[in-house]
Amino acid sequence: MRSAQENSGKPRPSARLQSRGSIGGSGLGIIIEVRDGIVHVSFPLDNDEGLSASRKTRIVASTHGNQQIGDTGVYLGLNAYRPVERAKR
Q1: Among 51, 47, 43, which residue's Cα sits nearest to residue 22?
Q2: Rounded to whole angstroms, how far apart are CA atoms 31 and 25?
Q3: Which of 27, 31, 40, 54 has the fewest CB atoms within 10 Å, i.e. is most exposed?
Q4: Any idea where the domains of the chain sit in the sequence?
């Protein structure tokens, strides 16, 4: 399989898109890097951004919906969460 760079014949710039770790500035705890036409997503697994609206999960990282990656025309939506441990009755 050929890479996007090989298919287009054009070199792909490297870029790092982050703000509080996000795409376009609205994500929580996420770092998106584009290197040589490949997207790399990272976030700390021990991150805790609080409870979800339903209060059933704790948010680890989120883009809060689909966000465009730079000016690529590609969108990414990511939610990382862990279940809230409930006390047994």
Answers
A1: 43
A2: 10
A3: 54
A4: 4-70
